[in-house]
């Protein structure tokens, strides 16, 4: 099969690395990709939202399957675009259709979905510029901290958590009236603060059947001890040690099953990954968000633990035969540590030469913001390279990741030294 992956992060390098292991693969393309994907596949300079160019490439080259990495093209309706084009309709595309992708594209839609299907989540109400006063009143009924969420996609910055009521009111005004996040904050969801520990559960579904993939926990803040600004993710661990059989059974019964069944009941066709962000409050898992794709850097620890042929898994998703597949999971722990550009998640410079990659032999090197310039691999984004390692437990895996992070070098390199500190 000829396969095209859309995206350019560590997630897509990990997908490419995993697909390359399949003997069903003929040729692999990544659009637009990075220096890592260029080393194992062919990069194509097409943007992930340029559906016309993607469609033309798929037809011209004879692509047999498309894997969508990031949420943007899904929320913009790439799956529907394929279904509505005679030449593309029969080509399997992994990722939900536009309506189902709204689970990530609109927090209000996701909350209403959870209410409808009795899926445990934080109590909430949503507001617009016409109902700001009601928003203030709702805030007054809550106890701090206050959680305000821009309804739409806001590049991971749309959730604001504040301790002070007056600050929360001011933030609500900024979002709704001053359009702090543009149209993404035209509607704001205010919800009850959930006090607990986070984990993410990944599900692969063909719309009828599903497989629960390994759990993961990521570390979103830039600073040690979970301080400072939010990033795309500074590291991840799989499995999550506290996600024991009892908790996983509960998550499957109360959340995964009702989610997949809810999609069916609501007539929301879904072939792809569901990323369920959870907080465990006491013994009770509650959903904080749905994403309609794999996480980054969670993919860099989840995929290496799956022993199955990924092309076969995706074919089963396309054919609706996931029930015939037995998942085989590596019982070891996997950890990844993300190296980032100095200054990230604020402004940072690009084009810094990266050295040391080839000296790393006992970890997987997944490249994110990298490109090739004058024959050298240089930085090209905030998150640069993720170093994934295996171990009998997450601590021993982390030791290897950190040892190998030490071999990498580029000007301004930064990374968190405390991944897993809270476990
Ligand atoms: P999101 O962009 O939805 O992933 O939210 C960003 C982060 O905000 C999450 O990873 C949580 O740490 C936090 N968060 C979101 N909703 C809640 C909530 N209801 N209670 C506590 N923390 C939350
Ligand atoms: N690491 C979080 C995300 O991919 O959304």
Overall description:
The chain is of the alpha+beta class and 423 residues long. It folds into 3 domains: 94 residues, 3-Layer(aba) Sandwich (Rossmann fold); 68 residues, Dna Ligase, domain 1; 209 residues, D-amino Acid Aminotransferase, Chain A, domain 1 (2-Layer Sandwich), CATH 3.30.470.20. The chain is built from 13 helices and 22 strands. Helix 6 packs across helix 7 and helix 8 packs antiparallel against helix 9. The longest helix is centred in the middle third of the chain and has 21 residues. The protein starts with a strand and ends in an 18-residue tail after the last helix. It binds adenosine monophosphate and glycine (GLY). Glycine (GLY) binds next to loops.
Secondary structure layout:
Blueprint: E1 2-7, H1 10-19, E2 27-32, H2 35-38, E3 42-43, H3 51-61, E4 65-68, H4 71-75, H5 78-83, E5 93-94, H6 98-105, H7 107-116, E6 124-128, H8 132-141, E7 146-150, E8 159-162, H9 165-176, E9 187-191, E10 197-205, E11 210-212, E12 217-218, E13 221-223, E14 227-230, E15 235-238, H10 245-265, E16 272-281, E17 284-291, H11 299-302, H12 310-319, E18 333-340, E19 364-367, E20 370-373, E21 376-379, E22 383-391, H13 394-405
Parallel strand pairs: 1-2, 1-4, 2-3, 4-5
Antiparallel strand pairs: 6-9, 7-8, 7-9, 10-11, 10-16, 12-15, 13-14, 15-18, 16-17, 18-22, 19-22, 20-21
Helix pairs in contact: 6-7, 8-9
């Amino acid at each position: 099969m000829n396969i095209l992956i859309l995206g350019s992060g560590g997630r897509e390098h990990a997908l490419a690395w995993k697909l390359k292991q399949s003997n069903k693969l003929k040729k692999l393309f990544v659009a637009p990709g990075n220096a890592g994907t260029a080393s194992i596949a062919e990069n194509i300079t097409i943007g992930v939202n340029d559906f016309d160019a993607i469609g033309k490439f798929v037809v011209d080259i004879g692509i047999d399957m498309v894997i969508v990495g990031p949420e943007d093209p899904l929320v913009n309706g790439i799956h529907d675009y394929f279904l509505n084009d005679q030449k593309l309709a029969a080509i399997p595309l992994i990722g939900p259709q536009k309506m189902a992708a709204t689970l990530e594209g609109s927090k209000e839609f996701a909350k209403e979905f959870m209410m409808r299907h009795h899926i445990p989540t934080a109590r909430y109400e949503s507001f617009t510029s016409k109902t700001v006063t009601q928003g203030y009143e709702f805030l007054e009924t809550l106890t701090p901290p206050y959680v305000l969420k821009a309804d739409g996609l806001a590049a991971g910055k749309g959730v604001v958590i504040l301790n002070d009521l007056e600050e929360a009111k001011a933030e609500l005004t900024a979002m709704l009236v001053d359009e702090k996040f543009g149209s993404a904050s035209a509607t704001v969801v205010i919800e009850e603060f959930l006090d607990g520990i986070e984990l993410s559960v990944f599900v692969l579904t063909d719309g009828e059947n599903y497989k629960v993939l390994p759990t993961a926990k990521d570390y979103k803040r830039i600073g040690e001890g979970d301080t400072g600004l939010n990033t795309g993710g500074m590291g991840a661990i799989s499995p999550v040690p506290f996600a024991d059989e009892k908790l996983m059974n509960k998550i499957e019964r109360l959340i995964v099953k009702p989610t997949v069944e809810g999609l069916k009941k609501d007539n929301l066709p879904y072939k792809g990954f569901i990323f369920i962000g959870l907080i465990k409050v006491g013994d009770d898992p509650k959903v904080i968000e749905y994403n309609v794709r794999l996480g980054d850097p969670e993919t860099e620890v989840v995929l290496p633990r799956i022993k199955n042929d990924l092309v076969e898994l995706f074919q089963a998703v396309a054919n609706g035969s996931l029930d015939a597949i037995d998942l085989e999971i590596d019982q070891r722990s996997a950890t990844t540590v993300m190296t980032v550009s100095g200054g990230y998640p604020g402004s940072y410079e690009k084009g810094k030469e990266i050295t040391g990659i080839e000296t790393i032999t006992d970890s997987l090197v997944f490249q994110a913001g990298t490109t090739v310039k004058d024959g050298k691999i240089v930085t090209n984004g905030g998150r640069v390279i993720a170093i994934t390692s295996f171990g009998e437990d997450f601590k021993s895996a982390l030791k290897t990741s950190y040892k190998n992070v030490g071999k990498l070098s580029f000007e301004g390199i930064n990374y968190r030294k405390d991944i897993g500190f809270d476990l």
